[in-house]
Cytochrome c domain-containing protein (Nitrosomonas ureae), 599 residues
Amino acid sequence: MKITLSILFAVLLSGCIAHPLEAPLPPAVVSEVPENWEQAQARKYQEKSNYIQSRQVAYDWFGNFAFSEIDGIPYIALKLLPKLAPQLWGSDENFLDAVGLFIDERQQSYPIARGIGFSGLSRAEAQGNIDYASFTCGACHIGRVRLESGQIDYLDGGVNTTFNIALFRVKLYQTLQTAYAGEADDTKYQLLTQKLLDALDTVHQQNPNYFYNNFQAGDRNFDAGYEAAQIALFKQHAEQTIKQFAQRAEAEYEGFGALIAKNYAGLESEMLAGFPGMADATGLSAINGYISLRKIPIIKGFASVTLPPEPGITDFMSVWEQGKRRASWDKSHTRLINGGGQWNGNVPMPIYRNLIAMLTLGLEKTDVRVAAFAEELLDGLPASPYPFNVDIGLAKKGQALFAEHCADCHQPKNGKVYDNLGTSMKRAYVVGALLNYAAHKQLYANCAPDTTVQLEGKDIKPCAEFDGVSLDDKKDLLMSPNNEHRGYNARPLSGIWAQAPYLHNGTVPTVYHLLVPDERPASFIKSKLDYDPRYLGFAWNAGQTANPNEGYLFQANAISALSNKGHDKDIVEGKKTYRLNWSGDKPGAFAIIEYLKTL
């Protein structure tokens, strides 16, 4: 009882400690408009290419490597899903286009869509285990835009606006139900196993490179020999492996239903269909705790206590130039200030920021190396340059307006949390005291100061210190106290053109609509790849694209968490007024838009 009370006290205390974070002192950083955009654009492209090439190993881990070597979806089973229920999945070339994952033309021999990794890429012993698959960092954070020529420009570190993680889980569950054909208990798993093995034999007989496409990564060849050996390993324990995989998928679907029932009343069908480019990541992570409690008969009825108190659905974030959001120590080295991650800055250290995103999948032995390589890559990864033309004269006018009204908040190293902008506060309250405590525990369990991993042949301790200060006895800093983050950060705006739509909940289609709130639409098309250079955002109505089947109709204000209000009234701080509503000065709005293209 004493232990229980002490834990409860610690949980409550962690939610009460608060130290307001402040914005950096002026003068604010304001980038100069280049004299020649074509040259500046070419230079930005080259700088980003050079940066990635100099960190190619880290980039590969970010884009292609699974989050665990011993857990996830059996890779062979994943590639057989369309054979079980072809009507639920996408094209023959890429069945995962049904959930917004794409074939990256820059790595055409990769055996599956960008955003899926498999453990054979990282496992030391090639045939030491079957390959497990999971989403990668690139699933959410490698995006695309269609250029005027019709070609695709890839946005490394940007946002995959088409990825629908919720729909993937729903389709996976529906595929299993199709395969069960009405059977129940262990009979359904036996039937599923037989159907997968039959499909496996059929596809492999037709194509001995069906699963791996004769892919090569480094010194490892995923050729017909590798594939045959993996198939043999998979068959050895197929029934047990497939049953565990299916039970986990069923539990995740049940947990997702519980999350929807608790926090998304009136939006049930839309949540099951999923919102491409969006997710309730905190909710998906909390489902793992829900699943664990549901396994304990005496307390299974209370499992929903692990779910967030509020709906936390938000847009995916661009993750480039993380150094501009990197927190720093205060003078006493007891507190992290002047930066932070997530929408509200509550995960200040980059390694844990990456790790907490990975823990969303709830995998056993999450691979800390992925988080460490992502930290290396993202700290200075340049934003993708705006790929269209810029009116330099108009941009210079916008620079002056930006400096006067925007720069004081949207600057590097601003850890301040703003709660006075009128945006929906639901996401800011999604991490309650219990979730905060659980997150601390999980983060520390996966990466403590003495955790050692091997990166590029060297043993390192990625969580031993931060900026030269030991993290021993600093477990409480892995996430900041909840009361420091009842609002949202004003992020630096590098590459802001590619973050569209806007606000944390993605309810405002373009920068124009952000600056001119009187014209914000109640509904618009999301997840198109075409772009609206005038309003600065992805194409948002049906008439703007030659691809009518692309995107989906998004309804703002369907629930309060999806309100498109906020950042729509002028703010007075001290003796200065910051204009946020430019409805009365549209030329000024367009000047700011032109300037933002250059960042």
